[in-house]
Amino acid sequence: MSLVLRMNMKKLHLNSQFTRYVLVGMINTLLTLCVVFILVNVFHVNILISNIFGYVIGLINSFILNKRFTFESKDDSLRSFAKFLIVFIGSFCISYYCGKLFAKLSFEFFKGYLLKYNESYEINFSILLTNVIYTLIGFVANKKFTFNR
Asked: Residue 2: helix, strand or coil by DSSP?
């Protein structure tokens, strides 16, 4: 088998696993965002509390789907969950603070260009940005640490 063909097959495997991760992530993100947006915008719950609650629900969903579907792990569930929890907490903290910082900087920069500035724009943009950062960190950490075979 040629080197190029082997490299393409390896990329296909990685892309397939990443595609499954993204699919699980989309389902999980939709679930998490629904919880967070409803808590923030309907029930006026603090953004940090809303994020924590949304991410905990997402955490359970994400662990089950990623263990069985994405990474097809046969590892001990308790040990895997402990590692998954470490990745979750680290990813959450990094993404939450980076998301808030980037959103604040972005809105400070674009504030003059907006016809009507509302603090809720910044909060909602922060929620979306936090999810993107969390997803990227989570894939790499879970692939290399949690479900590494």
From this structure: coil
State pTM to two decimals.
0.66
Digit-coded pLDDT (tens) for 106-126: 777 777 676 676 777 777 778
132/112 Cα distance (integer angstroms): 26
* Residues whose CB falls within 8 Å of the CB of residue 28, separated by 6 or more in sequence, listed in order: 58, 61, 62, 65
Structure tokens at 76: 């001990």
Q: How far is it, in rounded angstroms, from Cα 61 to Cα 38?
A: 18
Q: How many CA atoms lie within 13 A of 1 on its CB side?
A: 7
Domain map of the chain by residue range? Answer: 3-146
CB-based contact 35:53 (threshold 8 Å): yes
